[in-house]
Amino acid sequence: LTETYIARFDRVWKPVASCLDVVNVNDDLGMQDGPQISPELFRKRIKPFMKRLYGHIRKASGAALFLHSDGSLYDLLPDLIDAGVQIVSPVQFTCRNMDLRRLKSEFGAHLVFWGGGCDTQRILPYASPAEVRRHVRENVSILAPGGGFVFTQVHNIQPDVPPENIEAMFAAAAGAA
Q1: CB burial class (10 A; 0-12, 13-18, 19+) of residue 4?
Q2: Helix, coil or strand: residue 35
Q3: Strands (E) located in the chain
Q4: Which pTM was predicted?
């Protein structure tokens, strides 16, 4: 698969290379309570191939490497950074070991957190607009200092979210910036 992904990347990136700043890769590695596989098994069976693929992408494109992976990634983050990941999304801070302060403190010098601005499982659909604003301001105050943060909610906004909560989220983010 690694060779196939490298060949596919080499075919598709050249036409857009002049406007390419970020390359997105997807590998859902986490669950709510931890990684899908043990860090030891990840290091042995996946990381070497990931490191080869991500290294190739970064060298060939010069773009930042953005990893989409849901869930609790804390135990894998040092390995993902070593493999070449520079941006993680979503920042699913409601999962085990994904405390925003801890993530920013331990990995903020090495990663951009693309997301984590608002919890889409409990806050955005069920809280009041005032609670949404308070929540967003707190998360931005943790993740934004020193850079390395792109505001967005944790995950997709579902149809049951009240429009006034979406407005409150973006208003708070704009005011907190």
Answers
A1: exposed
A2: strand
A3: 22-26, 30-31, 34-35, 64-68, 87-89, 112-114, 149-150
A4: 0.93
